């Protein structure tokens, strides 16, 4: 399977799923954590702990399984001696997958809208966040055969608008 990640001297594959964490970000984060675990330098270990505690991993199409990555991050935090191990998912605004239904919102439109919101949320630019919030608030997704569940998307939109406010 593509995307093998070295885990404390052994190879572990994260499953690639339709909506998962950005593979490049995960590989860099896990690589940094594994290097810190092997290092006696407390500064290196502290830097890795800090990176693991709030990674803000982007959710993308065809990314690593979020549950598996969340578990791997928690294991590494424990290994680094962190006292604050997060229970919540580590991803950005789009933290839940949507069910595909017979008649639902256009998947591409929804994915693109949330990708723009994620990029704005990670930005320090208040105007970019406000523009993304307003665009999401005014979004009028087309209904298609085999699309995302409208109720789930509407709920996620409300949450994202609230977070961007």
List the helices and strands and how they pair.
Layout: E1 4-7, E2 10-13, E3 16-21, H1 23-38, H2 42-53, E4 59-64, H3 66-79, E5 100-105, H4 107-121, H5 126-137, E6 143-148, H6 150-164
Antiparallel strand pairs: 1-2, 3-4, 5-6
Q: Main beta sheet, described?
A: 2 strands, antiparallel
Overall average pLDDT:
80
Strand order of the largest sheet: 1-2
Spans with pLDDT under 50 lasting ≥5 residues?
A: 1-11, 91-95
Please tell me what the overall shape is: elongated
Number of strands: 6
Q: Give the CA-CA distance, first to last residue.
A: 40 Å
| Helix fraction bin | 40-55%
Label the structural class: alpha+beta
Order of helices and strands: EEEHHEHEHHEH
What is the count of distinct domains? Answer: 2
**Rg, Å, rounded:** 18 Å
Query: Helical region count?
Result: 6
Proportion of residues in β-strands: 15-25%
Quick summary:
By secondary structure, the chain is an alpha+beta fold. The protein is built from 6 helices and 6 strands.
How would you explain this protein's 3D organization?
The protein is of the alpha+beta class and 165 residues long. It is 51% helix and 19% strand. It folds into 2 domains: 4-79; 100-164, no CATH class. The chain is built from 6 helices and 6 strands. A two-stranded antiparallel ribbon has the order 1-2. Strands 3-4 form a two-stranded antiparallel sheet. It has a two-stranded antiparallel sheet with strand order 5-6. A hairpin with a 2-residue loop joins strand 1 (4-7) and strand 2. Helix 4 runs antiparallel to helix 5 and helix 4 (107-121) packs parallel to helix 6. The longest helix is centred in the first third of the chain and has 16 residues, at 23-38. The chain starts with a strand and ends with a helix.
């Amino acid at each position: 399977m593509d995307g093998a990640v070295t885990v404390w001297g052994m190879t572990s594959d994260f499953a690639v799923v339709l909506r998962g964490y950005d593979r490049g970000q995960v590989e860099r984060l896990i690589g940094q954590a594994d290097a810190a675990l092997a290092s006696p330098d407390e500064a290196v270990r502290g830097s890795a702990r800090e990176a693991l505690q709030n990674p803000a991993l982007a959710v993308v199409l065809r990314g690593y399984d979020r549950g598996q990555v969340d578990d791997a991050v928690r294991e590494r935090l424990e290994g680094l001696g962190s006292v604050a191990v997060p229970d919540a998912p580590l991803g950005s605004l789009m933290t839940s997958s949507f069910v595909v239904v017979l008649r639902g919102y256009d998947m591409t439109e929804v994915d693109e809208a949330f990708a723009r919101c994620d990029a704005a949320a990670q930005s320090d630019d208040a105007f970019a966040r406000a523009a993304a919030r307003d665009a999401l608030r005014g979004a009028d997704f087309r209904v298609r055969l085999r699309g995302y569940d409208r109720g789930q998307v509407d709920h996620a939109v409300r949450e994202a608008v609230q977070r961007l406010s």
